[in-house]
Specification:
By secondary structure, the protein is of the alpha+beta class. The protein has 19 helices and 14 strands. Strands 2-1-3-7-6 form a five-stranded mixed sheet, with no helix packed on it. It has a five-stranded mixed sheet with strand order 10-11-12-13-14, sandwiched between helices. A hairpin with a 4-residue loop joins strand 12 and strand 13. Helix 2 packs antiparallel against helix 3, helix 8 packs across helix 9 and helix 12 crosses helix 19. InterPro entries: RT_dom.
């Protein structure tokens, strides 16, 4: 007999009436009335539902009887003489898709959108894991339909690496829960609970009786292989991602010894940009944007000309668009470079009392010279020297008067494979200028500070170290990375729209 959240088992109708009257008496004592519309009885004989009469209450009224085709929603699970697995799966998937559509229509940023899916949509399915039978094929179909829905709302590129969807954001993924693994973990957890209750005779009996009757299959639990740990699972996913010839290039770039992996994935971890922009940037990193080179050699659409649609000189690869096109160098790349320089210039100006407060970098117009009693700050100014110096115009020059110390700052935003080369070139480029400044201005120290990060947001360890030397916080580094990512996605969008 089902009574809302109470289920009563009895050997026959006489015993059921006895238990019902006991429950009825208890309910009367606490002044709780029976909701007859929520109560049903069912008579099962040899795995078949047999017709029976309803059960009469002492206080009046009769509890109805369930037939062969009726089901009762007990604790959220549709039941009859057995759990209706197929019907429950269909209903749960329908509710899951409804919630997923609602979340994707909300306009949340990347991080919050994934968090909403993990905490509001996926728990609809999670509640049934370990109770309802889910095959790997069915769960894989749900994951595939999820990616299709993400693609429909422009949150995910259809050709992006599948592994990144369920990898943690701190590891370079999108942070969505892996539904298949979640189901396997919950089944294993329930199975472990029953097997650990050795002192309970009830649990022992249930374990011995479950011969493939439930998803847990407790009788054969010893023969079921245990799951890998979360750390092993993540490492396997990372290896699978890195092993791909095209998608794996970015994963391998992240593992280079000069790269700060945590900082490089910080934009994903904080997730402050729109989900659509986030998905677009991930597609750029995975090198699956529809450039002419990609369409010719990867998709093989049959086009013969893969030259850049702007400069018409080199093959149009994603690297060429983000940091190698001569036509874009004087406009788009310069704007991206200047946006980073503005963030640093403004931070130094406030730090040394040259400005009172900051403003959004896209509104900020740096003054060529800022000066007070303790510091001088120059923006894009040539340095006059006695001897001719070829490279005499760093992006920013900071002079600390009391310490007699000068900082030569130069910003660079190359493609990922050129990061280390850029750092070395910047150090060598201003070596002669540093010597001239030390002698002419009688400075005790002249520091060359290259501030380099890649067009796709990869942060070398030297960037964090150099910003720390200038007294600039990690917060500003994150701001710089976000600015570069927004500008890079805008450059690629505009280029491919031609």
């Amino acid at each position: 007999m089902y009574m809302d959240d109470i289920k009563i088992y009895a050997a026959n109708e006489r015993e059921l009436r006895t238990l019902l009257h006991c429950t009825e008496q208890f309910s009367s004592d606490i002044n709780m009335s029976f909701g007859l519309e929520k109560c049903r009885t069912m008579n099962v004989y040899r795995r078949r539902i047999e017709p029976s009469t309803g059960v009469d209450l002492q206080t009046g009224g009769t509890i109805g009887v369930m037939t062969e085709n009726d089901t009762y929603k007990y604790l959220g699970i549709l039941q009859s003489h057995r759990i209706q697995h197929g019907e429950i799966r269909s209903k749960m998937i329908e509710v899951y898709n409804q919630r997923l559509k609602g979340i994707l229509s909300s306009g949340l940023n990347g991080r919050n959108l994934v968090k909403a899916i993990n905490t509001f949509a996926i728990p609809v399915l999670t509640y049934t894991f370990g109770i309802v039978n889910w095959s790997d094929t069915e769960l894989e179909r749900v994951e595939r339909s999820t990616r299709v829905m993400l693609t429909k709302y422009l949150v995910h590129h259809p050709k992006s690496a599948v592994e990144r969807v369920t990898l943690p954001r701190a590891k370079g993924g999108r942070g969505l829960i892996d539904i298949r693994r979640l189901c396997a973990k919950q089944v294993q957890s329930l199975r472990s609970y029953f097997l650990s209750r050795t002192s309970s005779s009830l649990h022992h009996v249930v374990t011995k009786a479950d011969d493939r009757l439930t998803t847990l299959d407790l009788l054969h639990a010893d023969n079921i292989q245990s799951l890998e740990t979360d750390a092993e699972y993540k490492e396997a996913k990372l290896r699978q991602w890195a092993s791909k010839p095209l998608h794996g290039r970015f994963a391998n770039e992240l593992t280079q010894p000069y790269v700060d992996i945590e900082a490089s994935n910080n934009w994903l971890k904080h997730g402050e940009i729109f989900a659509e922009t986030e998905g677009f940037m991930v597609a750029i990193q995975d090198q699956v944007m529809p450039t002419k080179n990609y369409l010719r050699f990867i998709v093989k659409t049959g086009i013969e000309d893969d030259q850049c649609r702007r400069c018409h000189q080199k093959p149009e690869t994603i690297q060429h668009i983000t940091g190698g096109c001569q036509v874009l160098a004087g406009t788009e790349y310069t704007q991206r470079h200047d946006n980073v320089a503005k963030i640093i210039h403004q931070e130094l100006a406030v730090q040394h009392g040259l400005l009172k407060e900051t403003e959004p970098y896209w509104k900020y117009n740096p003054s060529p010279v800022l000066e007070n009693d303790s510091a001088q700050l120059y923006w894009d100014r040539s340095v006059l020297t006695d001897r001719t110096v070829e490279h005499n115009r760093p992006d920013i020059i900071l002079v600390e008067k009391e310490e007699k110390r000068t900082w030569l700052l130069d910003i660079g935003i190359p493609n990922s494979h050129n990061v280390q080369k850029y750092i070395t070139e910047k150090m060598v480029k201003y070596q002669r200028l540093a010597e001239e400044i030390r002698q002419l201005r009688r400075q005790q120290q002249v520091h060359i500070v290259p501030l380099i990060l890649s067009t796709t947001g990869i942060v070398p360890k030297s960037l964090t170290e150099n910003l720390a030397k200038l007294g600039i916080s990690v917060r500003v580094r994150n701001k710089i990375q976000k600015a570069v990512i927004l500008d890079t996605t805008a450059i690629v969008r505009r280029h491919l729209s031609i």
